[in-house]
Write a structure and sequence with these properties.
Distance between the termini: 19 Å
Number of helices: 3
CATH class: Alpha Beta
Strand content: 35-45%
Number of strands: 7
CATH topology: TATA-Binding Protein
Strand order of the largest sheet: 3-4-5-6-2-1-7
CATH architecture: 2-Layer Sandwich
Number of domains: 1
Order of helices and strands: HEEHEEEEHE
Shape: globular
Largest sheet: 7 strands, mixed
C-alpha cells in the first residue's frame, strides 16, 4: 500500500464482516489505537466482565467481554481488535451504526472503513 493510501486509512477503524447468517452478524473491528478501560465505561458495569490475566501471568493482557441480549463484544485491553456479534433483528443495521458511533465517540478512530474479507 502506498503512502497516500496509508494516509487515508490512518485514524480509521477498519470493519470486516466475517459472519452474516440468519441469526447473527459478526464484525471484527480494528481500531486506530488500543482499546482502553474508558471504552468499557460507556456500558453498564453489570454487563462488563474483565478477565484480569495480567494479575496472574507476567506480560499477559486483560480480556474483556460485554454481554447483552442483542450483542456480544469482546477484545483485549490495549489491543486494537474488537469482535462484535450482533443478534439479527429488523434493527441490526441500526445497532451496527449505533455501535460504530460509540467506537468513534470513544476516540478509537475518526471514521469507519468497511474492508472486504479475503477469501
Amino acid at each position: 500500500m502506498g503512502s497516500a493510501a496509508q494516509g487515508q486509512l490512518a485514524g480509521a477503524v477498519r470493519a470486516v464482516r466475517t459472519l452474516d447468517c440468519a441469526s447473527k452478524l459478526r464484525i471484527h473491528y480494528f481500531a486506530a489505537c488500543g482499546v482502553g478501560r474508558s471504552f468499557l465505561a460507556q456500558f453498564p458495569p453489570d454487563l462488563v466482565v474483565v478477565h484480569a490475566f495480567s494479575k496472574r501471568v507476567q506480560g499477559a493482557r486483560d480480556h474483556f467481554v460485554v454481554d447483552r441480549p442483542d450483542v456480544h463484544i469482546s477484545g483485549v485491553i490495549g489491543g486494537n481488535r474488537i469482535v462484535v456479534t450482533f443478534r439479527k433483528t429488523a434493527a441490526t443495521e441500526h445497532d451496527v451504526a449505533a455501535f460504530e458511533s460509540q467506537l468513534l465517540a470513544a476516540g478509537l478512530g475518526t471514521r469507519i472503513e468497511q474492508i472486504s474479507p479475503i477469501g
